[in-house]
Amino acid sequence: MQVVTWNVNSLRARMAHLLRFLDEVSPDVVCLQELKLTDDLFPAKVLREAGYPHLVWWGQKNYNGVAMLSKHPIDAPQKGIDDGGDRSQSRLIAGTVNGIRIIGVYAPNGTRLGSEPFAFKLSWYDRLFEMIASRHRPSDPIILCGDLNIAPDDPDVWDPFRCDGILLCHPLERERFQRFLDWGFVDPFRERHPFANTFSWWDYQQMGFQRNHGLRIDHTLLTAPVDARCSEVTIHANVRGWTSPSDHAPVSVTLS
DNA sequence: ATGGTGGAAAGTCCA
User: Which CATH number do you get for residue A72?
Assistant: First the structure.
């Protein structure tokens, strides 16, 4: 089983790329972020015809928006962090596929250090952790994937000196990421490639992709029983080179 | 010095 996460930066603008990717890679499950459309505009019919009959989506006007596409049934679908807190931003979609709880998220960017959106990012992460830790054990099969908007360590950034302490690389953000690892999640990419400077996002500006000025902020965290089945982690960086691309590449995990 | 690019949408906001 192959599971993909991809921030498409507008589903409507990226529909041709998505269909091409589905055709070329044929993953079992796809978690999408930044749909940037309302629920009524979600292209369910086209995606069903593309081989993904099982769909869950939670859109929002202009910003955010998440979806899960699957070849297999999606049990216990969930939209948002169901803790009674803020639901104004569509940032989480979850479902159980073939016994694995798959949680796809679009973490807040944070905008600027010290800003209100930055505080929202930190508290959103606290809520996400609480949601998972309060209802799961590390021995449960879980995939936590998405645009986490955190580059966890120096090898995850194009220039550790220039990126030191900036947004997406700040200690307060890295603490939030580390908390999931301390709880029991594994970062299978870093586990298999300890020193690789491989990125999942490149800025549109100043030839970011051409100069490989990128960050690894899209992740596929696995609990131990899923990691034990994980044969491959692929960052599909070639997709970032397609004409008029998303600024994020898809990331996939392959399970035996 | 507050830019550069891209997407929402029709003036800015967000990333």
Answer: 3.60.10.10
Structure tokens at A240: 């970032």
Q: How many domains does chain A have?
A: 1
User: Which residue out of A28, A52, A106, A227 is catalytically annotated?
Assistant: A106
For residue range A207-249, list pLDDT tens digits in order: 999 999 999 999 999 999 999 999 999 999 999 999 999 999 9
Domain that holds residue A45: 2-255
Tens of pLDDT, residue by residue over A147-171, are 999 999 999 999 999 999 999 999 9
d(CA A140, C1' B5) / Å: 42
